[in-house]
Amino acid sequence: MSEKNHVTTKWLGNMVFESTNPSGLDLKIDAGPDDGGEGKGFRPKALMLSGLAGCSALDIAGLIKKMKLDVDDFHIETIADLTDVHPKFYDKVVVEYHFHGSDLDEKKLQRAVDLSVEKYCGVMEMFRRFAEMEIKTVFHDK
User: Fold this and answer.
1) pLDDT tens digit sequence for 59-68
2) N or C: which end of the chain has fewer CB within 10 A?
3) What span, in angstroms and rounded, lies between the C-alpha atoms of 97 and 110?
4) Domain check: are 91 and 49 in the same one?
5) Could you give the CA distance from residue 81 to residue 92 in angstroms, rounded to a whole number?
């Protein structure tokens, strides 16, 4: 039997919704003022980018630990282009991995990125089905 995720999204009024997560945490979703909302919640398309970055970040954090790599700081910048015509979707996504530290093992960190991008991150694989993906790795020596 395949694994399933179940999320419940409940209308709270106007353009606000509350969505559950298998972790037991909830989040609010709201449209921006231009679309009749108040901007008091996450935007659905941006959440997709957070899901993409989060999936890969968790892979890499685990690999940093497993490989015993010395990294002071690590963040991911995710920049996506939306199509012009409805339904608007991301057709190109750039994912930039930024590593900071004074003793970075660039070869092993690049291997961690490659493993996440090519093998482990299921969200990355989903994005590949509808968007051109560009992956960049940036090393910042302190």
Assistant:
1) 999 999 999 9
2) N
3) 9
4) yes
5) 5
